[in-house]
């Protein structure tokens, strides 16, 4: 794959040497843990998107904020790029290192600073695992709502950087809707507090700007999140359909009926079969699609809502509807969905996970379009996704050992994202742009918008030292991508400014 | 009052003449309605904050987006500042005109473009009145949640520009939480779409950045908002307290009990008495404070929640608790709250309405602090506010005809806001910074943060032509304000950059 980070930092880098940087950091921050030998750097060469690998120049693993501040100040002074990494579970290569950059690993900041059950907030260091927040809040009857699939491992700092989602986001919002305050260090090592525990904040909304900024604006050092009361009860319905389009339409019908489910997930035949083979959840393997609809809240409401949803599903043509009779069966219903990705991994040597979003009403049409792309390319595509909020996760199955299949999978993936954009959606719902979707950003945004993004970035980091080459493509890249598609390092329009 | 807009545009302005600008605009946009005679300009000299008045150079009242685009392109070319105005109901002087600037009045864009009951969205021109959205959605059983007191008159474009709040924002969020997509024109006349009807959007969160940006980043031309289902039932409890602190503490206790009321409002004795004299709502005039707590949702829940809240209020020391028995009594309970501002206007020649926010747990302490400031200054202060989300609206009563009282009121207001900031809150919850709180921004933010705000502004509008002198103070102003307090035009630190 083409690795073109240099386009973003080209010319901005001072002519530093690795040995000099190492010596400088060892001298400036004597206690800072620094890795510099190839065998020590190797474990950090990729994040959850293992298809992209780059050995970092150096890895820094600070234990305290003083070390982070010194590191940033020195890198700023020396002109050395910094890529921040949390738990490294990201799926878009946002924490992919730079050959000529420091990888700042924040995983040691694991302290839960405070749980305030009255204000219903948790204050956390950035390395605290997502699930650990809900575990710490559970004794107070509270939990943290956003629940990415990686919640057992991913950290809250990374969740903010990627504006992570999850099954519960339909009802409870993305990370941005659940974060109240963030402390950051700028590339210059200056501390800033964004947002407040109080409502709103004057000035521009820097807190929202940081959510999903993919490590390009600053380093997150502390986070206050909202906690929600655990629902009194949760019930799950599983509906089978003999047609993917009918299932897609049922999704919109449920929302239109005035129900906001705690989760509303869809799986198609290939995903159902793979999951059933793997976890034996009792899924209907002959169905073309299933919907899993979780309703949570107070018992009386949930029962009412179950009746309403059942009626909507029947009208939409569901061939079978089952209600989980107890907590154990509910867990079984969910087990297939939660293990769908590894299950698909068992039936194909490789798969490529997409993350497009679309308006709900476009689900039937886009699902059809994906099926057509699958037929055309000969690559199987499994669909398993957050249907309720139109966040699709098509899994493109391929074999990297077969000549040209990786490129074909990437091409199909790109086309699926373009389909999402054309339907009024976007190229990423919860996985971020990172390194992976940098080219698709050019189909989502025009040159004026890309230029504006760069200007915003420059307001925080004029030297472009924080995570360069991710999230926002250069105009040169877009010109190139638009003119010649990927895999070509020649500039189509060298006269365009190289941000 | 000191009017120092020029600080913000000083040096940036080309040496234009009013007559030349008028002639240019008449020529470029022959159909554009332009006002230029003093008697025509007079009605636009202030917004809802009538204490500040400036006659605009010109007023433009476009009927279509082509006219807006041409106007912006010409003003950009000529270096003429543009202040955008919606319905003119803002309370912080955000739409205060410039002596040497065009006032762009968007009030003619009143079309409801689309109500989509399935997607639960409304697409609107910016001049659509807030209440008109809910009226148009009502036939589908839907409504638009944010409900500023001015909702009968204020427009959705202004709501976005100020990130407006209201009674329902505790449960349903501010404007930013209810807007999905905004179309804008930049100062260069370029069209951009921010956000999407689909979940999330890649790149930086420009939609959130526009919410509350007070007309400094672009002109809003179209808006898609979320609609919510009308609750099945709403009930209101009114609780009396013999002590303001006890009422303040009860607010936190209700939230801590796991209840998110549809509205949770507080009034102190002075506000209660003024309201009762005015609307005869049956308020307990001997009480030191009342809480109005509205619970909405499904009947069974609402009844449960009413019982829970009643228990919490009793434990918190409420001396009397009344439940509105029917819709008519509910309307009566609310009538006092909704008319509290004009009611206070009846007992004082002038009042100054503040808009600070604080973390809920700080309510008792800050209410005490306000009482002390009132005693010290001799000015009466009435408190009537969104207690649930810690958004305070102290009304400082004064008589502008008495020598020095306006300045004293402003001073007390400034101290109250500083109290809010010191308690971990902010200087504005829903009214915006505008012209009014520009000095207090210097106590909320440090020089690095202010510099960052200017850099963000410059990413959209490098010539600083859009609403200069509002929202974000210059560093020179902050140096001056910090060193010498208000009302002094001399620069304390002339060497500081003049953004």
From TrEMBL, chains A, B:
<dbReference type="InterPro" id="IPR051914">
    <property type="entry name" value="FAD-linked_OxidoTrans_Type4"/>
</dbReference>
<dbReference type="InterPro" id="IPR004113">
    <property type="entry name" value="FAD-bd_oxidored_4_C"/>
</dbReference>
<feature type="domain" description="FAD-binding PCMH-type">
    <location>
        <begin position="52"/>
        <end position="230"/>
    </location>
</feature>
<keyword id="KW-0285">Flavoprotein</keyword>
<dbReference type="GO" id="GO:0071949">
    <property type="term" value="F:FAD binding"/>
</dbReference>
<dbReference type="GO" id="GO:0016491">
    <property type="term" value="F:oxidoreductase activity"/>
</dbReference>
<dbReference type="InterPro" id="IPR016166">
    <property type="entry name" value="FAD-bd_PCMH"/>
</dbReference>
<protein>
    <submittedName>
        <fullName>Glycolate oxidase</fullName>
    </submittedName>
</protein>
<dbReference type="InterPro" id="IPR016164">
    <property type="entry name" value="FAD-linked_Oxase-like_C"/>
</dbReference>
<keyword id="KW-0560">Oxidoreductase</keyword>
<dbReference type="Pfam" id="PF01565">
    <property type="entry name" value="FAD_binding_4"/>
</dbReference>
<dbReference type="InterPro" id="IPR016169">
    <property type="entry name" value="FAD-bd_PCMH_sub2"/>
</dbReference>
<dbReference type="InterPro" id="IPR016171">
    <property type="entry name" value="Vanillyl_alc_oxidase_C-sub2"/>
</dbReference>
<dbReference type="InterPro" id="IPR006094">
    <property type="entry name" value="Oxid_FAD_bind_N"/>
</dbReference>
<dbReference type="InterPro" id="IPR036318">
    <property type="entry name" value="FAD-bd_PCMH-like_sf"/>
</dbReference>
<dbReference type="Pfam" id="PF02913">
    <property type="entry name" value="FAD-oxidase_C"/>
</dbReference>
<keyword id="KW-0274">FAD</keyword>
């Amino acid at each position: 794959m083409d690795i073109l980070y240099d386009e973003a930092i080209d010319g901005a880098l001072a002519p530093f040497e690795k040995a000099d940087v190492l010596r400088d950091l060892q001298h400036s921050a004597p206690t800072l843990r620094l890795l510099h030998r190839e065998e020590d750097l190797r474990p950090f060469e990729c994040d959850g998107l293992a298809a992209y690998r780059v050995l970092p120049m150096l890895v820094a693993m600070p234990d305290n904020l003083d070390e982070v501040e010194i590191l940033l100040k020195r890198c700023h002074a020396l002109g050395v790029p910094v890529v921040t990494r949390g738990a490294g579970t990201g799926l878009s290569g946002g924490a992919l290192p730079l050959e000529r950059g420091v990888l700042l690993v924040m995983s040691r900041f694991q302290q839960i600073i405070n749980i305030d059950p009255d204000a219903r907030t948790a204050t956390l260091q950035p390395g605290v695992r997502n699930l650990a927040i809900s575990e710490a809040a559970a004794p107070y009857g509270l939990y943290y709502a956003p629940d990415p699939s990686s919640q057992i491992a991913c950290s809250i700092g990374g969740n903010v950087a990627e504006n992570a989602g999850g099954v519960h986001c339909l009802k409870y919002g993305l990370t941005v809707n659940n974060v109240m305050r963030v402390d950051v260090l700028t590339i210059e090592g200056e501390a800033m507090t964004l947002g407040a525990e109080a409502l709103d904040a004057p000035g521009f909304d820097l807190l929202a700007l940081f959510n999903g900024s993919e490590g390009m604006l600053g380093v997150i050092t502390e986070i206050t999140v909202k906690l929600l009361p655990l629902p009194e009860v949760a019930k799950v319905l599983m509906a089978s359909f003999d047609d993917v389009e009918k299932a897609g339409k049922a999704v919109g019908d449920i929302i239109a009926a005035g129900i906001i489910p705690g989760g509303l997930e869809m799986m198609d035949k290939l995903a159902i079969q793979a999951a059933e083979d793997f976890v034996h959840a009792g899924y209907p393997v002959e169905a073309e699609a299933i919907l899993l609809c979780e309703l949570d809240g107070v018992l009386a409401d949930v029962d009412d809502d179950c009746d309403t949803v059942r009626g909507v599903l029947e009208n939409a043509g569901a061939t079978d509807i089952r209600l989980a009779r107890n907590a154990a069966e509910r867990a079984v219903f969910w087990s297939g969905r939660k293990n769908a990705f590894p299950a698909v991994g068992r039936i194909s040597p490789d798969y490529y996970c997409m993350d497009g979003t679309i308006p709900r009403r476009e689900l039937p049409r886009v699902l059809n379009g994906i099926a057509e792309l699958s037929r055309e390319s000969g690559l199987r595509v499994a669909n398993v996704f957050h249907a309720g909020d139109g966040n699709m996760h098509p899994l493109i199955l391929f074999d990297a050992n077969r000549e040209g299949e990786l490129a074909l999978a990437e091409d199909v993936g790109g086309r699926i994202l373009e389909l999402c954009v054309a339907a009024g959606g976007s190229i990423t719902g919860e996985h971020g742009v990172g390194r992976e979707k940098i080219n698709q950003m050019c189909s989502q945004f025009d040159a004026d918008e890309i230029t504006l993004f760069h200007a915003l970035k420059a307001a925080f980091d004029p030297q472009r030292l924080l995570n360069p080459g991710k999230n926002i493509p250069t105009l040169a890249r877009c010109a190139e991508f638009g003119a010649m598609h990927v895999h070509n390092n020649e500039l189509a329009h060298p006269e365009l400014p190289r941000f």
